[in-house]
Structure formats: structure tokens, C-alpha cells
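Researcher: Re-running this chain for the archive, since the previous output was lost when a drive failed. Same request as before.
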Amino acid sequence: MGHVFDKLRAVFNELRAVFDKLRAVFDELRAVFDKLRAVFDELRAVFDKLRAVFDELRAVFDELRAVFDELRAVFNELRAVFDELRAVFNELRAECGELGKDTRFRLADAVWGGLRDGHVLGKPVPLFPRIEPPAPAAEK
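Model: Regenerated C-alpha cells:
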């Protein structure tokens, strides 16, 4: 029976060697996993920073969108003003008798007396209105 126990002891010794090798492999795996955990922690920190940057960019883009909306409103108001100016200019051109003519000005076309007699350009308004000095206060 000693022979069977020797074989069992040999098998147990081989099993112990295999388990020791497995323990060494698992220790190496644990070291690899610890390194991977450290890498993933660093990646998480980087992604958190990126998230913060993207949140800031979103805020900046929201502000830019608001500015562009305000600019669009201003340009729409300017368009209305320019449309009014175009109408006034067309009225002035019609009043001057130039509607339908080539509107480009050439120096050769500049002559004295080009308007018909009695032509009125608009309501005359004084360039420098008269300013009356204040009347002296009545003495008592």
C-alpha cells in the first residue's frame, strides 16, 4: 500500500506544481488587470475633461446662436430701412425726371441748366434756421 500512497503523493505534488503555476499566471493576470484599470482610470479622466470641454463649447455655441439671431433681427430691420430708402430714392429720381434713364453719371453729362424751367426738386427747407436771441427780460 505504500506504493499507492507514493503515487498519490506524486500526483498531489504534480497538482501542487500545477496550482503554483496557475497562481503565478493569475498573479500576472492580476498585475495586467491592475495596469488596465490604471489605463481605464486615466481614460475616464480624459473623457471627463473632454466632456467638460464639450459642455463649454455647447455654451459658446448657444451664445453664438443667440448673437446670430440678434444679428438676423438687426439685418431684417436694416433691410426694411434700406427698402424705405430705395423707395425715397426712387421718388427723388422720379421727381428729377431720371426714372427710366441710365442712372450712371458721366462728367460729360454735367451741364449747367439741365433742368426744365420751373422744375421744383422738393420743398425748400432752410439749411441754417434762424436763431432769435432771447428777448430781454422786462425790468420792474
